[in-house]
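Ticket #4471: structure export looks truncated?
Reporter: QA, pipeline team
Priority: medium

Steps to reproduce: submit the single chain below to the structure queue and open the exported record.
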Amino acid sequence: MIETLGATSDSEELGRLAAVDGDAENQRDRLRAEVEALRANTLDALLTNARQSQRDLTRLTSVLRVLASYDTAAYDAARHSLAAAQQRRAQARELLFTPAELHGEPDEEWQRFIVAGDSYRQHLAAQHYPQAGDNCLYCTQSLSPVALDPVGRYRAFLDETVTQQLATAQAAPADASPALDRSELAAALEFASRQAALDEAPSWSAQAAAVLHAADTALNESSTGQALTGAGVTVDAAALVSSLEPLVSDAELATAKLAEDKANAATLLAAKQSELAELTARIELARNLSAAREYVRRAKRADQLEKLSKVISSGAGKQLTIQSKLASEDLVNKNFEGLFTEECSRLRAPGVALTFRGSKRPGATQEGRRQIQAVLGAVRG
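Actual output as written to the record:
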């Protein structure tokens, strides 16, 4: 392109050809890699890497999208509801049982003991337990009338609305936890950390790794009903999703293109080489656009001067020829009779009388000159 610059080059066209994208250098590197891959027939490896990159970016974006939609306010509300239900259950426990009726404080261990016994009752399908004559599910001894009362209150305690509300409240924090798969989270975190460790790490990698670490902590905290410590993690995740979605689309297109290229590798190399050469020329032209325009301007000026010189030279030469011809004719016409006499003397020709028709000046007409030349020719012959 640059080698063909000249007077016929269009400066505006040069500007259009020199217009390249901001990532033209990256595009050229990618084209070079594709050309080398086509030459070395390594498209299989490139396709495998592109697919893996697409999977990693897709997984990372999916995990961040789940995290961005996490309702931390709902989780906090579930935790508060659980605390209130636990408080109501403790109050009900104190109202149903006096300290003298229990071997210790009606704490969480006692609660689990009572629940375990009732689970066994449900396994036995003993819907009417406890009744007179039943054996105690906790100690297997026969229930006396005195023992029937506290055991009956055990079941009443478990059947109370506050206990049922507690069971519902206990499940609420888990239901409000992030719907993240731990294996997917671990894989996404490993990918983001690996990218962040590169010498030329992507701009999103460090933030993505930090957000995923916070997500892992939030998952652990929510699984045990603890208060969340990572403030703003959902906002950061949403911002990352917006940044990564175009990259996922680009990765999908790149993978599809490589798959297509693999199927058409036989005819693709020449096209890629041509595309690379054109892009390289455009980049070089963009770098040297000012010099190229100055070169074209000077070439146009030189061309204009050359054309003007030819016009001047052609007109001057023609005019000189005309003037020379007129001078020659004028010289002959003024002394034609003397020249004719001298020529006849050298040829020893007989005397000839000259008569000039059409003018008082000798040899004034073209016809007269032609007739005399004919005579002289006859004498020489």
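Status: closed, not a bug. The export was complete when the record was re-opened. Leaving a note from the reviewer for reference: The radius of gyration is 54 Å.
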